[in-house]
Amino acid sequence: MASIFTKIINGEIPCHKIAEDDKYFAFLDINPVKEGHTLVIPKEEVDYIYDLEDETLAGLNIFAKKVSVAVKKACPCNRIGITVIGLEVPHAHIHLIPIDKLNDMSFEKPKMNPSSEELAMVAERIRSFL
Ligand code: 5GP
């Protein structure tokens, strides 16, 4: 069965898209740990990130780098934290999170639950810097 993220890529589940090319896709996390929390994924559905072919993995990181520049401009912060967890969704993804301090990266505190309108505004702001 297709992963949630494959359904998002295919437009079967809505998302707030940030960027897309033929191999990669970036969109806002529905329950961010920080405003601007973005997920970057390969379109190829592979669970574990290090099971991706080297070329795809390299391309994913390069695509994430471009997206991170726009996220940082849209959500001013000390830096963009980068993490891979993958315990919830079995489709490789990189989390890009605007952070000022270590705790901003914490997935143990309650996550945010912004409205679709709020997410749409953040996504629009990030896209304006791409
Ligand atoms: P992980 O697999 O790295 O542990 O976490 C998956 C992330 O995907 C979580 O931060 C979660 O909020 C996010 N997520 C799960 N389902 C959806 C969804 O349907 N849409 C979006 N935009 N994000 C999702």
N-to-C CA distance: 33 Å
Low-confidence stretches: none
CATH third-level topology: HIT family, subunit A
How many structural domains does the protein architecture include?
Answer: 1
Number of strands: 5
Largest sheet: 5 strands, antiparallel
> CATH homologous superfamily?
HIT-like
Average residue-wise pLDDT: 97
Q: Which percent band covers the strand fraction?
A: 15-25%
Please give the count of helices: 3
Helical coverage, percent range: 25-40%
| CA-based gyration radius | 14 Å
Attached small molecules: guanosine-5'-monophosphate
The strand order across the widest sheet is 1-2-3-5-4
CATH class value: Alpha Beta
Envelope shape: globular
**What's the architecture, going by CATH?**
2-Layer Sandwich
Short description:
By secondary structure, the protein is an alpha+beta fold. It has helices at residues 4-9, 54-74, 116-127, and strands at 17-20, 24-28, 38-42, 79-83, 94-99. The chain is built from three helices and five strands.
Give an overview in words.
With 130 residues, this protein is an alpha+beta fold. It has a single domain (4-127), classed as HIT family, subunit A (2-Layer Sandwich), CATH 3.30.428. The chain has helices at residues 4-9, 54-74, 116-127; strands spanning 17-20, 24-28, 38-42, 79-83, 94-99. The chain has a 5-stranded antiparallel β-sheet. Helix 2 (54-74) crosses helix 3. The longest helix has 21 residues, at 54-74. The model has no long low-confidence stretch (mean pLDDT 97). The chain binds guanosine-5'-monophosphate. Guanosine-5'-monophosphate (5GP) is lined by residues 4, 13, 15, 27-31, 39, 85-89.
